[in-house]
Design goal:
The structure holds two protein chains of two kinds.
Chain A lengths: L19 E6 L5 E6 L3 H26 L5 H8 L4 H8 L3 H7 L2 H4 L4 H10 L4 H5 L1 H6 L7
Antiparallel strand pairs in A: 1-2
Chain B lengths: L12 H12 L6 H7 L3 E11 L2 E7 L4 H9 L3 E5 L4 H13 L4 E5 L18 E9 L2 E5 L7 E4 H8 L11 E6 L6 H18 L6 H19 L1 H16 L9 H14 L4 H28 L8 H22 L5
Antiparallel strand pairs in B: 1-2, 3-8, 4-5, 4-8, 5-6, 6-7
The chains are: A mainly alpha, B alpha+beta.
C-alpha cells in the first residue's frame, strides 16, 4: 500500500473519534505510519454485522410486545449476548435463563432476580420491566 | 498518583502496550519491530472456536504471546498475574501502582466506556496499560486511542472481568527487571524463524499457510452449506477480522513488511528488502480480497463475484505467502 492509497473514506458513524494507524510505503519505498480515516469495505462489514444485530433486536421486540418473550430477551439481544453469556454474567444456569426469557415465567420473578438481570444488561430494574420504554427505544447508533 | 508514562499511538493494542512498557524502561523499539520480534504474524481459521456464533479467523497469534516472546527474547523479566477474585485483582493493581510500576492488562471491550459504540462487541483480548490513580479514577494508556483516557474503579473492574469467549480473568503483567545491555539481533532472528516455522510446518490444516487454504475450501462451500445469508455474515466476519482496528491494514501484513524493511538495515541483509516488497504485495492482495468480498456481500455486481472466485484469490495469497516464508526460514545471523 502506497502512502497516498491509505483510505480516508470516513469512518462508519464514528466522526473521527478513532483513527486507524496504517503502515504504508512512501514514494522512496520506505515504510511509515499514517492515520487512516476509515475504509469502505471495512465499514460495510461492520455495518453488516450491526444490521444483523438490529434485525434480531427488532424481532425480539415484536415478540415481547406480543406477550410471548420477556424483556430480558430484548435487552439480551440489544447487548449482543446469548443465553450462555448472560448465564456467565448473572450466575444463573442456561436452563434457568431460557426459562426467564418467556413472559409467563418473567412476570413471576422476584425483585432480587430482576435486579441481577438488570445489572448484567446495563439497565436499571425499573427499565427492565417498563414495556413502554421498550416500545420506544430507537435501535440505531447515536451519531 | 500518576507515573510519568509516555503514551504512544500504535496500530495494534498488544504491540502498543509492549512498546510503551519497554519504552518506559528505556528500551526503544518501533511497533513493527515488536510485532516481528514477538512473531505476531500468523493465520488461523478455527471452526470449533466461535465468536458471535461464527468460526474465528485470526491473522495474529494468541493474545499475550507477543509480549511474552519479546520480553523473553530480550532477556527481560516479567511478572504476570491472573485472579479469581475481582477485589483482589484491583488491590494488587493498586499495590503495583503505588510502587510506581505501570501495569499492562487484558480487558474486554464491550463495557469499555471510551470506546466508540460500533466497536463494542464481546471481544476480550484488548490490551491497555494503567499507569496511575487519582482517587477513583485510573489513568489508562490505550494504544489505539489518540489521548490518555481515564476509567473509574468500578468500570475497570468490570472490563477486567468481562465474560464470554476467552475471558480475561483480571490478567495483568508488568516488567520486573531489564538487563543492562539489550541485543535485538538474535531476538529478531529467532522471531522470524519462529514465524516461518509456525506458518509452514504446523501439521494441523487450520493454522499457517495451510489455514488460508483451509479457509479457502470452506469459503467455497459456504453458500451451499450455510445458505446465502449466513455465508454473507461469515464473509463479513472474515473481513472484520482482517481490518478491525489494530491490524495496521490487511491483517498485519503491512506491519510485517515494515518490520522486514527495518530488519534489512539492522541486520545488514539487503535481501530482506525484496521480501518486504513481496510482503507488501501480499498485503495489497488481501486488500483486494476485502474489496471483492465487500462487493459480494453488498451484492453490487448482481452475483458477478462468486465465492469460488474469492476462494481462488485466497489460494493465490497462500502460495505467495508460502514463497516468502520458505525464504525467510533460512535466515541466520
Amino acid at each position: 500500500m502506497k502512502i497516498d492509497e491509505v483510505p480516508q473514506d470516513g469512518a462508519y458513524l464514528i466522526k473521527g473519534k478513532i483513527r486507524d494507524l496504517c503502515y504504508a510505503v512512501d514514494k522512496d519505498g520506505h515504510y511509515t505510519s499514517t492515520l487512516s480515516m476509515g475504509w469502505k469495505p471495512k465499514n460495510e462489514a461492520m455495518q453488516l454485522a450491526w444490521e444483523q444485530v438490529y434485525e434480531h433486536v427488532e424481532e425480539k421486540r415484536q415478540l415481547v410486545l406480543a406477550g410471548k418473550l420477556s424483556p430480558i430477551a430484548f435487552y439480551m439481544e440489544l447487548n449482543i449476548m446469548t443465553p450462555s453469556l448472560l448465564a456467565e454474567y448473572t450466575g444463573y444456569s442456561r436452563w434457568k435463563i431460557k426459562r426467564h426469557l418467556k413472559m409467563k415465567h418473567f412476570v413471576k420473578l422476584r425483585p432480587e432476580v430482576l435486579a441481577k438481570y438488570a445489572e448484567a444488561l446495563n439497565i436499571t430494574p425499573a427499565e427492565l420491566v417498563d414495556l413502554e420504554k421498550l416500545r420506544e427505544i430507537v435501535i440505531k447508533h447515536e451519531d | 498518583m500518576k507515573i510519568d508514562f509516555q503514551h504512544n499511538l500504535a496500530a495494534h493494542c498488544e504491540n502498543g502496550v509492549t512498546a510503551n512498557l519497554l519504552n518506559f524502561y528505556g528500551v526503544k523499539l518501533s511497533e513493527p519491530m515488536i510485532f516481528g520480534m514477538g512473531s505476531g504474524y500468523f493465520f488461523s481459521h478455527m471452526p470449533f472456536y466461535k465468536l458471535n456464533g461464527m468460526a474465528v479467523t485470526s491473522f495474529r497469534v494468541w493474545p499475550g504471546v507477543i509480549f511474552k516472546r519479546v520480553t523473553r527474547g530480550l532477556g527481560i523479566q516479567v511478572k504476570r498475574y491472573k485472579f479469581r477474585n475481582p477485589e483482589k485483582a484491583m488491590e494488587e493493581l493498586d499495590h503495583l501502582l503505588e510502587k510506581g510500576i505501570p501495569v499492562g492488562m487484558l480487558v474486554g471491550v464491550f463495557h469499555l466506556p471510551y470506546f466508540p459504540k460500533e466497536y463494542r462487541f464481546h471481544f476480550n483480548a484488548h490490551n491497555i496499560t494503567v499507569f496511575g490513580r487519582e482517587g477513583d479514577r485510573y489513568f489508562v494508556s490505550d494504544p489505539i486511542m489518540e489521548h490518555v483516557e481515564t476509567l473509574s474503579r468500578e468500570e475497570l473492574r468490570k472490563v477486567r472481568f468481562a465474560r464470554g469467549t476467552y475471558p480475561p480473568r483480571g490478567r495483568m503483567y508488568c516488567i520486573s527487571k531489564v538487563p543492562e545491555k539489550v541485543d535485538v539481533r538474535p531476538a529478531i532472528i529467532r522471531g522470524i524463524r519462529k514465524t516461518a516455522k509456525d506458518m509452514l510446518t504446523i501439521p494441523i490444516p487450520m493454522f499457517g499457510i495451510d489455514g488460508i487454504r483451509f479457509l479457502s475450501g470452506r469459503l467455497r462451500q459456504w453458500p451451499v452449506k450455510l445458505g446465502e445469508k449466513s455465508a454473507i455474515l461469515n464473509l463479513g466476519q472474515v473481513i472484520r477480522m482482517l481490518e478491525e482496528i489494530g491490524t495496521g491494514g490487511a491483517g498485519f501484513r503491512f506491519i510485517y513488511a515494515a518490520f522486514l524493511q527495518e530488519c534489512a538495515e539492522v541486520l545488514q541483509k539487503p535481501w530482506l528488502n525484496d521480501l518486504s516488497k513481496e510482503m507488501t504485495g501480499v498485503g495489497d492482495q488481501w486488500r483486494e480480497f476485502a474489496v471483492m468480498a465487500a462487493r459480494c456481500f453488498k451484492n453490487r455486481d448482481k452475483g458477478q463475484i462468486t465465492y469460488g472466485q474469492l476462494a481462488d484469490r485466497l489460494l493465490e495469497i497462500a502460495d505467495k505467502e508460502e514463497k516468502v516464508f520458505r525464504q525467510l526460514r533460512k535466515i541466520s545471523l
